[in-house]
């Protein structure tokens, strides 16, 4: 099989630009088809890579939506637009469609010949299928059937080990074992030692004829054979056969090669499934957040498709913010790594289900659980610690709405998290975890404030001098005092200053406020100003950006 990512490496597509749907580049291409009618969806069977110059692209929204829906039903692999004559660029609806559903939307100049693209891809598909059939013809039917129905790396290794009566292992690109299996009742071997010995003696490798590049050790036991596992043209690991006493046979090589093909297919199929699952997750979020009341039946179906347990006591939404060091793109590596870490956390936490997905340029947590509130909060704190350790450069902040009793109330939890987010984003430079049910007063007081109003309110509370660059030291001292409940000993230790220095700074701050910092009233308003800092900073950043854009214009 061939994927969209591989297709883009063909010479005919060197000028291609992927504008949307990069998450679907692992989609399999079954065939290529040139669009010549608005009803092309009626003739699709799935997995088609569609090419169009735009001549028959619909000119009204209803027809365009109907066409794109037909593409979604048939799960096409991607759309290529040749622009410059009928289209000046990829249609906006197609770009939105591709990004939402992880279907690549690609642009090439009008003069790129479709005939060359279709010929190259079709020949590659046919050639790969032929070679795969040729290799499989040398594999015993019983073994072939078992391998083809195998769903995982571990089961592939177990089937090979039992059938060939030899230990089998899979290593990564650094030659470290991550899957291994031994035949039932077979002799135990030191897998890593055998592999390391083979690599050290690599000068004695020989190549077998009529198969992929296959290497053999010399004629002394343990006998070792391996074959590279290539995925989308790149070597991603190695499949090993280790025979302590039994000499290697040529038929072993064909079985190993066929197994390597199956392993590659498993990875590509899983990537393809992940792209489709992401599409389902985004559709579910859109339904829940935009139209939950009228779409309850569809929502239940999608939850079932995503294999999320519906009989849960708690449903809640969360946002994962990138903290003070904001990422430049919602699809950057940083966002992807956070999403992967969340998936791992959900998979490993008992009693928890759901997903993390990038929705409207935000990382959204969808959580269902049968745990009580306290264990859920403990689990979320554990997630935040994991994120801090693995993605420290983003200073991740986890914000959770309140737990709800029904999935259709997820929207309420989401809006609670969204209202809380700007209030806490700048509070901790090392990230943190915040729960809306613990910050109800702050949300009630400030949740309706716009960033601009927050900035205005804050400037009324704080003396002007504290908000200037010259007053930064005094402002940071005031923050430290408030965070430490005005305990001077703690503040001197945290700021690494002498007590007399702190006394001087407090005196200056009190002069600016014209009020003692021991006053409960003064302390209350200082806390209000600090609570508004992140929301006001959001306005300040957008204001500066607008000013800069105005200067450029």
Overall CATH architecture of the largest domain: 2-Layer Sandwich
Radius of gyration: 30 Å
CATH class of the largest domain: Alpha Beta
Annotation, overall tally of beta strands: 17
Order of strands in the sheet with most strands: 2-7-6-5-4
At the fold tier of CATH, the topology name of the largest domain is: Alpha-Beta Plaits
Strand content: 15-25%
CATH superfamily descriptor of the largest domain: Reverse transcriptase/Diguanylate cyclase domain
Mean pLDDT: 84
Helical region count? 19
Uncertain parts: 203-210, 324-333, 544-553
How can the largest sheet be summarized?
5 strands, mixed
Shape: globular
Cα-to-Cα separation, first versus last residue: 50 Å
Structural class: alpha+beta
Q: Report helical residue fraction.
A: 40-55%
Count of separate structural domains: 4
Short description:
With 553 residues, the protein is α+β, with helices and mostly antiparallel strands. Helix content is 48%, strand content 16%.
